[in-house]
Amino acid sequence: MNTSTNNSKFRLNRMLRQSLFAGMISAAALAFGGAPGLYGQSPSLVFGASAQAQEISNQEITSYARSVLAIEPKRLGASQEIKGLAGGSVPRVVCNETSQINRLSGNVRGIVVNYCQQAKKIIETNGLTVSRFNQLTLLQQANPEVKQRIQAELLRLQQAGNQ
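^ that's the sequence the OP posted. Answer follows.
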């Protein structure tokens, strides 16, 4: 292959990785007031420089990436189930807003509660609190260096086949 073809493939792979990363983080950014939600859009939360300045250990980056990789298939599954029940639409859900969840129909509410419990357990099993997971989500949205570290770890874990 020539250099032009290799460069094109590299750019395409990079764009796909960035899209995958953005999708996973967006998907993982809503429930619990900023963590894994079903709606698939990033929250528009604002936070101060003190949160940005916190040190983030390599272990936290790995724990966060593992959580995101484990939560995403569950989010997709729950979204598909809800779409089937709700005629193709998925309501915006934040896991720690019980009043919002209580307004959902019985079957949809059950799927959401199950998903939220699973996401919380995944986060905690990976050594993070939901609060810290949310902080890391917000930090990666505001800090390109944190975003790059998380993206690199997601890629490393995916290439290793380790979630």
